[in-house]
Every structure is written in C-alpha cells, then in structure tokens.
Specification:
Blueprint lengths: L22 E3 L2 E3 L8 E6 L5 E4 L4 E8 L2 E5 L2 E5 L4 E4 L5 E5 L4 E7 L2 H4 L4 H7 L4 E3 L5 H20 L4 H23 L7 H21 L7 H8 L3 H12 L3 H17 L5 H7 L5 H12 L3 H7 L5
Antiparallel strand pairs: 1-2, 3-10, 4-9, 5-8, 5-10, 6-7, 6-9, 8-11
Helix pairs in contact: 2-5, 3-4, 6-7
Length: 306
C-alpha cells in the first residue's frame, strides 16, 4: 500500500501488528483486536482505498489531516480534516482513499455498550453512519474530537486498565450524542423536564421490548397502548424521540437483525421468519431496498472459513 510517510512514533502499535494482514473472507472482515481486548485502533496514511467489506464492530474514522472519502451502501461521505464518521456494525462500506493525508481508524465491539437502556434511543438513530463535523455542530464535534484524542492516548500508552478507560470514553461519546439528540427534539413543549424524562423512559422500554420481540413486533396501535399515549400523540412523539416513523424504525430493526443472522448458519428463510416477515419474497424485497443487494447475495459475502 502506498503511504505518504511512515507511522509516527506515538502511533506505533502496542503489539507488532502493522495492519497489513487484515482478514477478509468474502466481504466479511474478521477483526484483529489488540490482544484479548475488544478494540483495535491504528494510524492510516494509505493513499489507496480498501474494498467493500463489513464486520461486527463499530468503525470510527477520524481525519487527522487531509480529506477522505467513504462509501456506505448508497451514501458517499466526503470527510474533511477533523471530521469523524461512525459506521454501524454489519454495514457494507468502501474506503475510497485519498491522494494524501492521514486518519485514525478504530474498530470496537459495541456489545458492552448495547447493554445500557440509554443506548436504545441512540441505536435507533445509528442505523446509518453518524457524521460529525465542526461546520455542522461545533460544540458536539469538539467534545467528541477531544474524546477521540483521549482514546488515542489511552490506547497507545497501553497502561493498566486501558480498555476500561477507553470504553468509558466511548460511552461518553454516545452520551454526548444522546444528550444533543434529546436537546434538539421538543416532544413536550412547555411541559418541563419531568414530562420529557417520562416520555424518554416509556420509549426506551418500548425499544427494548421491540428488540427482544422482533419476530412479533407490535402494531402502531399496540405500541401506542404500550407507552400510554393515543395513536396520534404516539406517532408524533416517536418521530421526535427516534428520528423516524414507527414503521420505518421497525423495518430498520428487522433489517439490522437480519444482517446479524445472515452471518450465521441459519437459512435465509428462517432469517425472514425470525425477523417478522410473512414470506421470503417480502423479506428479500425489503432487504434489497435497504442494502442494495438481496439477502442471498449478502449471505454469500459473509461466508467465513470454518
């Protein structure tokens, strides 16, 4: 791979990994985490890109200098210096490269993060990449950029308890994003923080229920009853809290779950059934509309050596 300079001393890996042996089978990458951890972070100054792939880890790209272009399914992101891009697990993406510059790339297992009820609201919006730039939201961007600087220091110093300290920073990033999301919404105008928090609690419980019962998702009327709101009020509040309509969310949750199941040995027909689709045809149609490829094609790209 071409690079504009050697890796700076501060970014030398704690082990002897140099990034040259990234393991991709089909289009699924088996992440080479550091040691027995759940994280890998590295300095990247390659001018060449990296072909279409996906993995079970969250990927963060932080531009240190220069521009960088990333394609995630049907969306192209042109990152400027100090921009950050968070890519959800199992999303097909292509690092298109740059003529110069450098960036940090981090992969981490978000399973520990998903255990928190607060993350439910964030995951509902993290169905597409999150792009943070100073031009869009300077306050939030600066907070996340500073967290990434601390994550980098913690990772490469590799002192005792480094992984716990690093995950604490990851949690802080998501908490910052979640607070901003709530602050920008106005679900209960004039009713104060108590009403907002009460609604938040209702919706996080609903999202937890839906994730655990994806095969038998609630109808709009049932979801409204679950939260204690009228159908009309529920629809408005759901859009405010989650950022999409109820049925858009259900569809995205089903597809996200299907991607995880397609990386296993479960048949495509069984994946359709377990994610709440009535038949294989409707599942295939919805999956292709969301990802650009059929479930069978996606399955062929996720076959691992056994």
């Amino acid at each position: 791979m071409k690079a504009e300079e050697t890796t700076p001393v501060r970014y030398v890996q704690p082990d002897d990994w140099d990034g040259s042996d990234r393991r991709v089978n089909g289009d699924q990458e088996t992440v080479n985490y550091l040691g027995n951890s759940h994280i890998r972070l590295w300095y990247n100054n390659q001018t060449e890109g990296y072909p279409t792939h996906h993995h079970g880890a969250v990927e963060i790209i932080a531009c240190l200098k220069g521009d960088y272009t990333v394609s995630c399914q049907n969306q192209v992101y042109h990152l400027k210096e100090k921009d950050l891009l968070f890519i959800p697990p199992h999303m097909l993406h292509w690092l298109m490269g740059s003529t110069s510059g450098a960036r940090l790339i981090m992969l981490f297992d978000n399973t520990p993060v998903t255990a928190f009820a607060d993350y439910k609201l964030i995951s509902a919006r993290f169905i597409r990449p999150l792009h943070f730039s100073a031009s869009k939201d300077p306050v939030l961007h600066n907070e996340i950029w500073e967290d990434m600087n601390r994550i980098t220091d913690i990772y490469f110093r590799h002192e005792s308890m480094w992984e716990l300290n690093l995950y604490a920073r990851i949690l802080h990033i998501f908490a910052s994003f979640g607070r901003q999301t709530l602050a920008q919404s106005n679900p209960f105008p004039g009713q104060g923080r108590t009403a907002v928090q009460k609604g938040y609690d209702h919706f996080t419980k609903l999202l937890t229920y839906l994730e655990n019962n994806i095969q038998h998702c609630l109808s709009l009327e049932e979801a409204a009853e679950f939260t204690g709101y009228s159908k009309f009020h529920f629809s408005r509040l759901f859009k405010e809290y989650i950022g999409s309509t109820y049925y858009e969310y259900i569809q995205s949750l089903r597809i996200r779950t299907a991607k995880e199941l397609l990386a296993t040995d479960i048949s495509v027909t069984e994946v359709a059934y377990q994610t709440g689709f009535n038949d294989l045809a409707s599942f295939s149609r919805a999956f292709k509309n969301n990802t650009g490829i059929t479930p069978t094609k996606y399955r062929s790209l996720t076959i691992r050596e056994r």
